[in-house]
Amino acid sequence: MTQVSDTEPLGAPLRIAFDYTRSLGPSLSRFATALREHRVLGVRGSDGRVHTPPPEYDPVTAALLTDFVDVGPGGEVVTWSWQPKPLDGQPLTRPFAWALIRLDGADTPMLHAVDAPREAMRTGMRVRVRWSPEPTGGIRDIACFEPEESAGASPTPDPAEVTMITTPIELAYWHTASPEESRFLRGITEGRLLGQRCPVCGKVYIPPRGACPVDGVPTTDEVALPDRGTVTTFCVVNVPYLGQRLTPPYVAAYVLLDGADIAFQHLILECPADEVRMGMRVEAVWRPREEWGPTLENIDHFRPTGEPDAPYDVYAQHL
Amino acid sequence: MVNDVAVIGFAQSPSVPVTDGTTNGVEMLVPVFERALAQAGLPKSDVGFWCSGSSDYLAGRAFSFVAAVDAIGAFPPIHESHIEGDAAWALYEAWLKLRTGEADTALVYGFGKSSAGELRRVLALQTDPYTVAPLWPDAVSLAALQARLGLDAGLWSERDMAEVAARSRADATTNPLAQLSGKVDVEELLGTEYVADPLRVHDCAPVTDGAAAVVLAAGDRARELVGRPAWISGIAHRVESGSLGVRDLTTSVSTTASAEAAGGVDGVEVAELHAPFTHQELLLRQALGLGSSVRINPSGGVLTGNPMFAAGLVRIGEAAGRVFDGSAGRVLAHATSGPLLQHNLVCVLEGAR
Lengths: 319, 353
Description:
heterodimer, A: mainly beta, five-stranded antiparallel sheet, 3 helices, B: alpha/beta, ten-stranded mixed sheet, two-stranded antiparallel ribbon, globular, Thiolase (chain B), Thiolase domain-containing protein (chain B), Thiolase-like (chain B), OB-fold nucleic acid binding domain-containing protein (chain A)
């Protein structure tokens, strides 16, 4: 977390990454397999035009297309643009041109990168495929295109049927907490649990929210809450998973702090899992103060207080 | 007999390069709802249907739109829907609900915190996931390919493009919510560096955080609520192939078809066009057949403020505003979605009905 000032919302970098794995179907599978063999395929459409990459269905009539033909590896630049500062994931890391390239034997152009100096780029220029030295099965097996006159030797093809592609996606964000959440996070950094009351319905939310979900108005009055409350509902975690901090079985529960109208999730430890119950009274066990930061993890877990259980009516509205 | 449907209220947040609010839009939406409903004279509890447009890719979190519902105050339970896209298409869904009589009022909203991520790169994920997206072609580079096709074909010049930018910013001087405005010199614009040859900074809509809301009402309910509803006389949308190569990128057949299905452009006095790049405004004017007498983007358009997933809805709100204030009798709004104007919506609004 980065703190800009005492009042501005807190923010932190958020990087999300996921691999999309997709099955290719008959047409794209043929296209990808051919790329691995260092061939580019197009498909003949209902009107006789050859499209590459090959669509499974005709873009106009939606008829299933199966008449595959070899195209390229040379072609002509139909239009281009200059990328002076390549972005993460793009085909080249030095400045390059994007182009729509009409491959020899094709009627419709395909998108790819051209590795050429800025001053060499022009509409109508001849280019040819530069194959990737490390084929993965897919459009990236074409490393890029290059001016035909400068075409170098290509690596040896690695033929293998390709039926799946995996596309790694990585995106970077600056994630901002709301002003209300920021006040909560600053409070918990000092060991205080701050909720907010809705000015219309009077309900107390912790963490506070930008708008009361019942009334749609910002919550305004700050309410300091104690670090003890009632288990409203819970589950016993028996399933191990990657990155798990505790050894199953253990209990994740909703804890309704005294004076709050919304429960939050936390761990119930220091008692056997099978003794945790709805209505059980619990209190926070804080981590050592020197480990505190703007996170609910400052509370390591909750433990039973030994008080008599809260009657069901006390928390029945918060399940 | 299906119901006539009118726009009766509109509000938008200021278009800004960055807000310190969350990606769920709540902070931007609460005041926008208040102002749109006040203009419509409609209590929030009377809204029959709520529909929104936004994108999880922009927010970087799954189901980000669910948190936005907090801004409504959804109790007692409401009728609510969401589309992953520009809220102009959420308006289309709400229009259908009102046409069929399932509701007689609706509030449509869109929001986007474009500044949270790297917008031009996030938008690469709109492209074909098999043969295009793995190359990460960013939205500005793709638009530049389209711009050059038109330049090479003599359909527009870099000067024509700069003139669109200059006119948009001049128009935006009367729009207090615009992000960019002011008098700019075309020669000066043409002297600036390319960001993606042949596009310069002024050719590209800015990165904008923002939100907007439009209130709809059907038939007599609209007449009761406001003096001069902006009646939707036609609305239609069409989509083109996901394959960039098979499309004619120098025109927009889906826009032409949508306009025809929405009743045509005859008598249209004002057009709000959703053109995130200067050349796309020129392209859309041609595809729609808008003559020189039609006032284009008096608001300044998205070149002066482009809140993603609200910007198309804003076009409808701005166009309706020209009917509300009596400055026009028949107006056209256009919204787009997807790479290089792949999907287009045209909405024609009229004062008298």
